[in-house]
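Q: Hi! First time doing this. I have a protein sequence and I read that you can turn it into a structure. Is that right? Here it is:
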Amino acid sequence: MFGCLVAGRLVQTDAVQVASDKFVFNLPDYEHVNHVVVFMLGTVPFPAGMGGAVYFSFPDPVSGGPVWQLLGFITNDKPSAIFKISGLRTGEGGAHPFGMMASSPSPSVAQVGVSVEVLEQLSQQVPVSSAAVSTVDSFLQFTQKMLDSLYNYASSFAVTQAQMTPNPSETFIPSSCILKWYENFQRRMAQNPNFWKN
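A: Yes, that's right. Below is the predicted 3D structure, encoded as structure tokens:
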């Protein structure tokens, strides 16, 4: 019913069913994992009005017990999701439906759990904020990086007026002009990330 994907590893489709509505994937060497993708295989849909809450559990370094954190959810309409797990903090677990039915086989093994729940209940749950993956438009990210690169590249040729040698075939643009434009661009992006679409 579910699959789990980590970069550089084989896809896992062998979730352990720990209850009639709960499934768990073991994630060895979780310390070296930044993101995890949880998805439906397409073989069995959720029952009508149901979805899957996705949790991440790692062994607590102090107690050794599992610390579960809600990452988000998947549904028939949104059958996959990517979560950032590298920023999760130890000891910040919350309420979870797994109890002690799923325990990690080793201190270096984390678990990804899927709990089948009512959609209305899923929409009211609040996932841990550090698990969210950036939703910034990829074109916007590219534009910001391109402008950073352009400014850094142009600045590498900066010379003072005393260092300039007259060259009638070249036009010089004051770097302060580019810097002011760039700062204005960043300010506008912070105020309204979609201003460039207008």
